[in-house]
Design brief:
Number of domains: 1
Number of helices: 9
Radius of gyration: 18 Å
Strand order of the largest sheet: 4-3-2-5-1-6-7-8-9-10-11
Number of strands: 11
Distance between the termini: 42 Å
Structural class: alpha/beta
């Protein structure tokens, strides 16, 4: 009973915080990156691609919170896992004031389940995962997975654009409940955005991506050849999620390529 009361209190506080700061998320293209693994890496790839558009971009993750390449002031930073609603809305309002048009926000299931995201208007929701996630998720406690899915429904059900990993076990359920436009990515299962000819070495990781809904469909062009700095093929799904997000936002492929290849190395 106390848990339900806490959730209702968090929702009310979150809504009042949004109202107090005049719903800053409505003035942004807010991208929420959820999932059990790979959220930070996916957010960084999306951030790097959006930086290629020449517009002001903000990023809010557990590892860094910045506008363009400038770190936000310490007093504005939030705890991503359990953000205080007034601090979160204050940070978003500050990013709007500074001219941001895009913000990428790492969204944890805890924050969704607690009702701390009430009043937020996401334009894009991304289901992130690392390459081995579709194997690991089979061993996750069923109750934990169920609670996580229930929380993620709150993000994916109402968002106009959703980016889903077809290799993840959660994809089928989230596909059914999502009401917005869906873009899928993957390596093993059939998807709109796929990786081909994957190679890895001391120099990093290479792959081609294809977009089956584009005019050129499966053509392997220079702009679709990606060389990541990291020597880790498990990061390819994170990169594909960023490609799907960029495709949804109509960003040209040559900017996608440059954004992925110049992304910050987190490993």
């Amino acid at each position: 009973m106390s848990k339900v009361r806490d959730q209702l209190l968090n929702k009310l506080t979150a809504f009042l915080a949004s109202l107090c700061f005049r719903f800053p998320s409505r003035s942004l293209t807010l991208v929420g990156v959820a999932g059990s693994e790979g959220r930070v890496e996916t957010a960084e790839y999306i951030y790097s691609i959006l930086r290629q558009t020449g517009q002001d971009v903000g990023i809010i993750t557990s590892r860094r919170q910045a506008r363009n390449e400038e770190e936000v002031a310490y007093y504005l930073r939030i705890k991503v896992d359990r953000p205080k609603p007034f601090k979160l809305q204050r940070l978003l309002r500050e990013l709007v004031y500074r001219g941001c048009t895009f913000v990428i926000l790492e969204v944890l299931t805890e924050a969704l389940a607690d009702g701390r995201m009430c009043g937020m208007q996401f334009k894009v929701a991304v289901l992130a995962s690392l390459g081995h996630h579709h194997h690991l998720s089979r061993h996750v406690d069923s109750l934990t997975r169920e609670n996580g899915l229930r929380a993620q429904c709150r993000l994916f059900r109402k968002t106009p654009l959703v980016i889903l990993n077809k290799d993840a076990l959660d994809c089928a359920f989230l596909t059914r409940i999502a009401c917005g436009e869906r873009i899928t990515y993957g390596i093993h299962n059939e998807a709109q955005i796929k990786a081909l000819k994957v190679q890895s070495g001391d120099w990093g990781t290479f792959f081609y991506f294809i977009n089956k809904d584009s005019v050129w469909r499966s053509q392997l062009s220079f702009d679709r050849s990606i060389k990541l700095k990291q020597q880790d093929t498990n990061l390819i799904p994170c990169a594909l999620a960023a490609v799907g997000t960029a495709v949804a936002l109509s960003i040209p492929e040559f900017r996608i390529k440059k954004g992925l290849e110049t992304a910050r190395d987190l490993r």
